[in-house]
Amino acid sequence: MAYNLLKGKKGIIFGALDENSIAWKTAERVHEEGGTFVLTNAPIAMRMGQINKLAEKTGSQIVPADATNEEDLNTLVTKSMEILGGKLDFVLHSIGMSVNVRKGRLYTDEKYDFTAKGWDVSALSFHKVMQSLYKADAMNEWGSIVALTYMAAQRTFPDYNDMADNKAYLESVARSFGYFFGKEKKVRVNTISQSPTPTTAGQGVKGFGAFINYAEKMSPLGNATAQDCADYTVSLFSDLTKKVTMQNLFHDGGFSNTGVSQEVIEHFED
Ligand SMILES: NC(=O)c1ccc[n+]([C@@H]2O[C@H](COP(=O)([O-])OP(=O)(O)OC[C@H]3O[C@@H](n4cnc5c(N)ncnc54)[C@H](O)[C@@H]3O)[C@@H](O)[C@H]2O)c1
Which pLDDT value is given to residue 242? Predict the structure, then answer.
Protein backbone atom coordinates (compact mmCIF):
# COMPACT_ATOMS: atom_id res chain seq x y z
CA MET A 1 0.00 0.00 0.00
CA ALA A 2 1.28 3.49 -0.87
CA TYR A 3 0.55 6.62 1.19
CA ASN A 4 2.28 9.31 -0.88
CA LEU A 5 4.62 9.86 2.07
CA LEU A 6 7.49 11.10 -0.12
CA LYS A 7 5.58 13.14 -2.66
CA GLY A 8 7.84 15.91 -4.01
CA LYS A 9 10.92 14.63 -2.17
CA LYS A 10 14.22 14.14 -4.00
CA GLY A 11 17.26 12.09 -3.12
CA ILE A 12 20.18 9.78 -3.84
CA ILE A 13 20.16 6.01 -3.32
CA PHE A 14 23.54 4.25 -3.04
CA GLY A 15 24.03 0.48 -3.25
CA ALA A 16 21.39 -1.20 -5.46
CA LEU A 17 23.34 -4.12 -6.97
CA ASP A 18 20.58 -6.59 -7.81
CA GLU A 19 16.97 -7.15 -6.88
CA ASN A 20 17.93 -8.70 -3.52
CA SER A 21 19.76 -5.54 -2.41
CA ILE A 22 18.20 -3.59 0.44
CA ALA A 23 18.79 -0.44 -1.64
CA TRP A 24 16.93 -1.96 -4.60
CA LYS A 25 13.83 -2.68 -2.51
CA THR A 26 14.09 0.77 -0.96
CA ALA A 27 14.28 2.45 -4.38
CA GLU A 28 11.12 0.64 -5.49
CA ARG A 29 9.34 1.60 -2.28
CA VAL A 30 10.46 5.26 -2.40
CA HIS A 31 9.20 5.40 -5.98
CA GLU A 32 5.81 4.01 -4.90
CA GLU A 33 5.62 6.74 -2.25
CA GLY A 34 6.17 9.49 -4.81
CA GLY A 35 9.88 10.23 -4.25
CA THR A 36 12.29 10.85 -7.12
CA PHE A 37 15.99 10.00 -6.99
CA VAL A 38 19.31 9.38 -8.65
CA LEU A 39 20.67 5.84 -8.39
CA THR A 40 24.38 5.37 -7.83
CA ASN A 41 26.84 2.55 -7.37
CA ALA A 42 30.55 1.90 -7.86
CA PRO A 43 31.51 1.92 -11.54
CA ILE A 44 32.59 -1.72 -11.21
CA ALA A 45 29.11 -2.74 -10.01
CA MET A 46 27.55 -1.01 -13.02
CA ARG A 47 29.15 -3.51 -15.35
CA MET A 48 26.71 -6.13 -14.14
CA GLY A 49 24.09 -3.94 -15.75
CA GLN A 50 21.16 -4.87 -13.52
CA ILE A 51 20.75 -1.36 -12.13
CA ASN A 52 19.47 -0.22 -15.54
CA LYS A 53 16.36 -2.34 -14.99
CA LEU A 54 15.70 -0.53 -11.70
CA ALA A 55 16.34 2.88 -13.28
CA GLU A 56 13.81 2.13 -16.00
CA LYS A 57 11.23 0.86 -13.56
CA THR A 58 11.53 3.90 -11.29
CA GLY A 59 12.14 6.54 -13.98
CA SER A 60 15.54 7.35 -12.46
CA GLN A 61 18.89 8.34 -13.85
CA ILE A 62 22.12 6.62 -12.85
CA VAL A 63 25.29 8.48 -11.90
CA PRO A 64 28.21 6.13 -11.13
CA ALA A 65 30.39 7.00 -8.14
CA ASP A 66 32.96 5.15 -6.08
CA ALA A 67 31.88 6.08 -2.55
CA THR A 68 35.53 6.23 -1.45
CA ASN A 69 36.40 8.85 -4.08
CA GLU A 70 35.74 12.46 -3.06
CA GLU A 71 35.79 13.77 -6.62
CA ASP A 72 33.21 11.17 -7.72
CA LEU A 73 31.02 12.10 -4.76
CA ASN A 74 31.21 15.85 -5.43
CA THR A 75 30.25 15.26 -9.06
CA LEU A 76 27.43 12.96 -7.99
CA VAL A 77 25.99 15.56 -5.62
CA THR A 78 26.16 18.38 -8.19
CA LYS A 79 24.73 16.24 -10.99
CA SER A 80 21.93 14.91 -8.79
CA MET A 81 20.76 18.43 -7.95
CA GLU A 82 20.81 19.31 -11.66
CA ILE A 83 18.90 16.17 -12.65
CA LEU A 84 16.32 16.46 -9.87
CA GLY A 85 16.00 20.24 -10.12
CA GLY A 86 17.05 21.37 -6.65
CA LYS A 87 18.35 20.36 -3.24
CA LEU A 88 17.88 16.89 -1.77
CA ASP A 89 15.56 15.57 0.92
CA PHE A 90 16.89 12.05 1.46
CA VAL A 91 20.05 9.98 1.01
CA LEU A 92 20.46 6.23 1.54
CA HIS A 93 23.96 4.84 2.17
CA SER A 94 23.64 1.07 1.63
CA ILE A 95 27.25 0.08 1.08
CA GLY A 96 29.42 -2.59 2.66
CA MET A 97 32.37 -4.79 1.76
CA SER A 98 35.21 -6.47 3.63
CA VAL A 99 38.23 -7.67 1.66
CA ASN A 100 39.31 -9.84 4.62
CA VAL A 101 35.93 -11.62 4.54
CA ARG A 102 36.09 -12.01 0.78
CA LYS A 103 39.58 -13.50 0.90
CA GLY A 104 38.76 -15.79 3.82
CA ARG A 105 41.14 -14.07 6.29
CA LEU A 106 40.06 -14.59 9.90
CA TYR A 107 39.75 -11.70 12.38
CA THR A 108 42.93 -12.93 14.06
CA ASP A 109 44.80 -12.92 10.75
CA GLU A 110 43.81 -9.65 9.10
CA LYS A 111 45.79 -8.28 6.20
CA TYR A 112 45.78 -4.61 7.08
CA ASP A 113 45.69 -3.36 3.49
CA PHE A 114 42.44 -5.31 3.18
CA THR A 115 41.23 -3.91 6.52
CA ALA A 116 41.93 -0.34 5.41
CA LYS A 117 40.14 -0.84 2.08
CA GLY A 118 37.09 -2.39 3.78
CA TRP A 119 36.96 0.45 6.31
CA ASP A 120 37.15 3.06 3.58
CA VAL A 121 34.33 1.44 1.57
CA SER A 122 32.07 0.45 4.46
CA ALA A 123 32.59 3.18 7.07
CA LEU A 124 34.60 6.24 6.05
CA SER A 125 32.56 6.47 2.82
CA PHE A 126 29.60 7.53 4.98
CA HIS A 127 31.60 10.49 6.27
CA LYS A 128 32.75 11.29 2.73
CA VAL A 129 29.18 11.21 1.39
CA MET A 130 27.96 13.53 4.16
CA GLN A 131 30.90 15.91 3.90
CA SER A 132 30.26 16.23 0.19
CA LEU A 133 26.54 16.95 0.79
CA TYR A 134 27.35 19.35 3.63
CA LYS A 135 29.93 21.40 1.76
CA ALA A 136 27.69 21.70 -1.31
CA ASP A 137 24.79 22.70 0.99
CA ALA A 138 22.88 20.05 -0.93
CA MET A 139 20.28 19.04 1.69
CA ASN A 140 16.94 20.74 2.24
CA GLU A 141 15.93 21.56 5.81
CA TRP A 142 14.27 18.55 7.51
CA GLY A 143 16.00 16.22 5.11
CA SER A 144 16.99 12.72 6.21
CA ILE A 145 20.16 10.64 5.75
CA VAL A 146 20.16 6.91 6.54
CA ALA A 147 22.92 4.28 6.52
CA LEU A 148 22.60 0.55 7.09
CA THR A 149 24.42 -1.25 9.85
CA TYR A 150 24.47 -4.50 11.81
CA MET A 151 24.36 -5.40 15.50
CA ALA A 152 27.89 -6.81 15.40
CA ALA A 153 28.85 -3.20 16.18
CA GLN A 154 27.60 -3.81 19.75
CA ARG A 155 27.89 -7.59 20.25
CA THR A 156 30.39 -10.05 18.94
CA PHE A 157 29.56 -12.30 16.00
CA PRO A 158 32.93 -13.95 15.23
CA ASP A 159 32.40 -14.54 11.50
CA TYR A 160 31.35 -10.94 10.88
CA ASN A 161 35.07 -10.24 11.13
CA ASP A 162 36.37 -6.68 10.58
CA MET A 163 32.93 -5.56 9.38
CA ALA A 164 32.00 -5.35 13.08
CA ASP A 165 34.62 -2.63 13.59
CA ASN A 166 33.55 -0.88 10.39
CA LYS A 167 29.94 -0.81 11.54
CA ALA A 168 30.94 0.60 14.96
CA TYR A 169 32.77 3.41 13.15
CA LEU A 170 29.85 3.98 10.78
CA GLU A 171 27.41 4.34 13.69
CA SER A 172 29.74 6.79 15.40
CA VAL A 173 29.98 8.89 12.23
CA ALA A 174 26.16 9.04 12.14
CA ARG A 175 26.13 10.55 15.63
CA SER A 176 29.03 12.93 15.07
CA PHE A 177 27.89 14.25 11.69
CA GLY A 178 24.28 14.14 12.88
CA TYR A 179 25.17 16.82 15.41
CA PHE A 180 26.52 19.25 12.80
CA PHE A 181 23.88 18.45 10.21
CA GLY A 182 21.13 18.90 12.82
CA LYS A 183 22.46 22.08 14.34
CA GLU A 184 23.35 23.86 11.13
CA LYS A 185 21.04 22.44 8.46
CA LYS A 186 18.12 20.79 10.37
CA VAL A 187 18.95 17.50 8.68
CA ARG A 188 18.68 14.19 10.53
CA VAL A 189 21.17 11.32 10.35
CA ASN A 190 20.42 7.79 11.53
CA THR A 191 21.57 4.20 11.07
CA ILE A 192 19.23 1.23 10.74
CA SER A 193 20.57 -1.94 12.33
CA GLN A 194 19.00 -4.58 10.11
CA SER A 195 18.40 -8.34 10.60
CA PRO A 196 20.59 -10.71 8.59
CA THR A 197 19.21 -10.51 5.05
CA PRO A 198 19.94 -12.79 2.06
CA THR A 199 21.77 -10.38 -0.27
CA THR A 200 25.15 -10.53 -2.03
CA ALA A 201 26.87 -8.74 0.88
CA GLY A 202 25.01 -10.80 3.53
CA GLN A 203 25.75 -14.15 1.96
CA GLY A 204 29.46 -13.31 1.88
CA VAL A 205 29.59 -13.88 5.66
CA LYS A 206 30.70 -17.44 6.60
CA GLY A 207 27.91 -19.68 7.93
CA PHE A 208 25.25 -17.19 6.84
CA GLY A 209 22.56 -19.85 6.24
CA ALA A 210 22.69 -21.22 9.80
CA PHE A 211 23.01 -17.74 11.20
CA ILE A 212 19.91 -16.35 9.50
CA ASN A 213 17.89 -19.37 10.72
CA TYR A 214 19.15 -18.81 14.27
CA ALA A 215 18.20 -15.12 14.13
CA GLU A 216 14.76 -16.07 12.81
CA LYS A 217 14.20 -18.37 15.80
CA MET A 218 15.51 -15.79 18.26
CA SER A 219 13.34 -12.90 17.03
CA PRO A 220 9.78 -12.76 18.41
CA LEU A 221 8.59 -11.16 15.17
CA GLY A 222 10.96 -13.12 12.92
CA ASN A 223 13.76 -11.55 10.87
CA ALA A 224 13.08 -8.23 9.18
CA THR A 225 13.27 -8.72 5.40
CA ALA A 226 14.79 -6.33 2.85
CA GLN A 227 11.22 -5.31 2.00
CA ASP A 228 10.51 -4.53 5.67
CA CYS A 229 13.71 -2.48 5.74
CA ALA A 230 12.56 -0.52 2.69
CA ASP A 231 9.30 0.32 4.51
CA TYR A 232 11.16 1.45 7.62
CA THR A 233 13.54 3.59 5.56
CA VAL A 234 10.59 5.29 3.86
CA SER A 235 9.24 6.22 7.30
CA LEU A 236 12.62 7.76 8.19
CA PHE A 237 12.65 9.75 4.93
CA SER A 238 9.09 10.98 5.54
CA ASP A 239 8.00 14.04 7.53
CA LEU A 240 6.60 11.72 10.24
CA THR A 241 10.02 11.23 11.89
CA LYS A 242 11.41 14.78 11.83
CA LYS A 243 12.91 14.77 15.33
CA VAL A 244 14.59 11.36 15.16
CA THR A 245 18.32 11.88 14.74
CA MET A 246 21.76 10.55 15.76
CA GLN A 247 20.17 7.18 16.54
CA ASN A 248 21.08 3.62 15.81
CA LEU A 249 17.65 2.07 15.24
CA PHE A 250 17.31 -1.69 15.60
CA HIS A 251 15.13 -3.19 12.91
CA ASP A 252 15.39 -6.86 13.73
CA GLY A 253 12.06 -8.34 14.88
CA GLY A 254 13.18 -7.97 18.51
CA PHE A 255 16.41 -10.00 18.22
CA SER A 256 18.61 -7.41 19.94
CA ASN A 257 16.58 -7.46 23.16
CA THR A 258 15.91 -11.20 23.33
CA GLY A 259 18.04 -13.24 25.75
CA VAL A 260 16.73 -16.59 24.58
CA SER A 261 13.59 -17.85 22.83
CA GLN A 262 11.46 -20.92 23.45
CA GLU A 263 12.61 -22.43 20.14
CA VAL A 264 16.26 -22.09 21.06
CA ILE A 265 15.67 -23.56 24.55
CA GLU A 266 13.88 -26.54 23.02
CA HIS A 267 16.79 -27.09 20.67
CA PHE A 268 19.14 -27.54 23.63
CA GLU A 269 16.86 -29.64 25.89
CA ASP A 270 18.29 -33.06 26.85
N1 LIG B 1 22.54 -8.43 4.23
C2 LIG B 1 22.63 -8.37 5.54
O3 LIG B 1 22.56 -9.39 6.24
C4 LIG B 1 22.80 -7.04 6.21
C5 LIG B 1 22.46 -6.90 7.58
C6 LIG B 1 22.65 -5.65 8.19
C7 LIG B 1 23.17 -4.59 7.45
N8 LIG B 1 23.48 -4.76 6.13
C9 LIG B 1 24.06 -3.64 5.39
O10 LIG B 1 23.17 -3.24 4.36
C11 LIG B 1 23.92 -2.54 3.38
C12 LIG B 1 23.54 -3.03 1.99
O13 LIG B 1 23.96 -4.33 1.77
P14 LIG B 1 23.06 -5.46 1.11
O15 LIG B 1 22.86 -6.52 2.14
O16 LIG B 1 21.87 -4.88 0.44
O17 LIG B 1 24.06 -6.11 0.03
P18 LIG B 1 24.44 -5.70 -1.49
O19 LIG B 1 25.63 -6.54 -1.80
O20 LIG B 1 23.26 -5.86 -2.36
O21 LIG B 1 24.84 -4.15 -1.40
C22 LIG B 1 26.14 -3.68 -1.08
C23 LIG B 1 26.43 -2.56 -2.06
O24 LIG B 1 27.64 -1.88 -1.77
C25 LIG B 1 28.13 -1.43 -3.03
N26 LIG B 1 29.53 -0.98 -2.97
C27 LIG B 1 30.62 -1.73 -2.67
N28 LIG B 1 31.74 -0.98 -2.79
C29 LIG B 1 31.33 0.26 -3.18
C30 LIG B 1 32.02 1.49 -3.46
N31 LIG B 1 33.36 1.58 -3.37
N32 LIG B 1 31.29 2.57 -3.83
C33 LIG B 1 29.94 2.51 -3.93
N34 LIG B 1 29.24 1.37 -3.65
C35 LIG B 1 29.93 0.28 -3.30
C36 LIG B 1 27.96 -2.68 -3.89
O37 LIG B 1 28.13 -2.44 -5.27
C38 LIG B 1 26.54 -3.07 -3.52
O39 LIG B 1 25.59 -2.43 -4.33
C40 LIG B 1 25.40 -2.72 3.75
O41 LIG B 1 25.84 -1.59 4.49
C42 LIG B 1 25.35 -3.93 4.65
O43 LIG B 1 26.46 -4.02 5.51
C44 LIG B 1 23.29 -5.96 5.50
Answer: 98
